[in-house]
Amino acid sequence: MTFPGARLLEGGAMAAEIRTAVAEDVASFTATQGRPPGLRVVIIGKDAPSTVYLERILRGCAKVGIDAGFVELEGEATEAKVTATVRALNDDPSVDGVIVQMPLPGTIRLRAVIDAIDPAKDIDGIHPLNAGLLRLGYDGFLPATAHAAVEILRRSAIEIEGRDAVVIGRSAVVGMPAAFLLVREDATVTVCHRRTRDLAGHVRRADIVVVAAGHPGLVTGAMLKPGAVVVDVGINVVDGRIVGDVDFESAREVASAITPVPGGVGPLTNALLLTHLIRAAERQAAERQASRQPAVTGGDR
Ligand code: NAD
Question: CB neighbours of 194 closer than 8 A, spacing ≥ 6?
Fold first, then answer.
């Protein structure tokens, strides 16, 4: 069986739909709380490659009425300075979500920074508490990229339950959470990584292939099972162009559906992050409200 020209799973329209809903939620939050929801992104050194990506997130926030901004630290900032900055944002009641730019400079321990983030403001799901909630199947904040990788399948009405899925990449922020989410959706999941022997053999058996390796051209059409669904999370710059981890031209001849790069998982990731922020803002507002209620005391002890 051949699938000439796979269906394109595009994230742009999905993202637009999400942003419209978020804008309404933001307006009602702003009306009831007297301030917009707030996001702060801590960046360490202005020249880091992820700054462009973060600027795009901030522009997306501004469009829906979120008060979003950078907190800039010197490239030489110490770990103590970074964690103190994060804690100050935790304590700021006008800030509902905190993101720290990754990757961190080599002098700063990732774990120290992750631990400093208040789990209630951890809208990209990197704190161990949120990672643990995901692992146990409870409701916490999901890493937005992993969330988008699975949400793009759900919103495209692609069946996940009972299907064989391969996730390539086992990072704490993308590969592993995507694998846990697919398990939660009742897929049978294999996680592949740099030390996997016979990657092609695993991919060949998969109905769904999620690729998050940071390696352009890692998955080709020749490796895929005919009719497989391919979610390409990779973002790489090759000859000045942004490409994913999948050789798109050969893969689209064999797959039944495939996400383009750019225009697939990326736009959905940014839109889902906004939904995480409004959820964080609403939850914290509800908690503040509850803590202001007089304690029920009384009678029947
Ligand atoms: P990472 O470097 O932390 O992890 C990469 C993983 O891929 C590792 O587990 C590694 O073992 C595996 N891997 C690498 N080369 C491999 C190979 N040849 N064969 C098998 N496994 C291999 O990267 P990350 O932070 O998880 O990001 C993965 C990709 O996703 C990158 O391209 C990154 O730019 C992209 N990304 C996209 C978004 C988005 O919104 N679409 C967001 C974050 C990251």
Answer: none
Q: Where do the structural domains in the chain lie, given as residue ranges?
A: 18-118, 144-265
Say if CB 117 and CB 86 are below 8 A apart.
yes
> CB-hemisphere CA count at 13 Å for 254?
22
- Does 144-265 match 18-118 at the fold level? yes
CA of 228 to the centre of ligand 1 (A): 20
- Of 2-11, 196-205, 247-256, which gets the smallest average pLDDT? 2-11
Give the pLDDT confidence of 138-188 residue by residue, as tens digits.
999 999 999 999 999 999 999 999 999 999 999 999 999 999 999 999 999
pLDDT tens column, 99-128? 999 989 999 999 999 999 999 999 999 999
What kind and span of H or E run contains 99? Answer: strand 97-100
Q: Assign 67 to helix, strand or coil.
A: strand
**Distance from residue 220's CA to the centre of ligand 1 (Å):** 16
Domain 18-118 class, CATH top level: alpha beta
Is 177 exposed, middle or buried (CB count within 10 Å of its CB: 0-12, 13-18, 19+)?
buried
Respond yes or no on whether the N-terminal peptide bond of residue 267 is cis (omega within 30° of 0): no
- Give every CB contact of residue 100 below 8 A, 6+ residues apart in sequence: 41, 42, 44, 82, 86, 113, 117
CA atoms within 13 A on the CB side of 258: 31
- Residue matched to tokens 């064989």: 164
Q: Is CATH 3.40.50.720 what the domain over 144-265 is classified as, yes or no?
A: yes
Would the pLDDT of 1 be above 60? no
* Alpha carbon distance 131, 135 (integer Å): 6
10, 57, 145, 166, best to mutate for ligand 1 pocket (most atoms within 8 Å of CB): 145
pLDDT for 47: 67
Distance CA 115, CA 128 (A): 7
Q: What is the pTM of this model?
A: 0.95
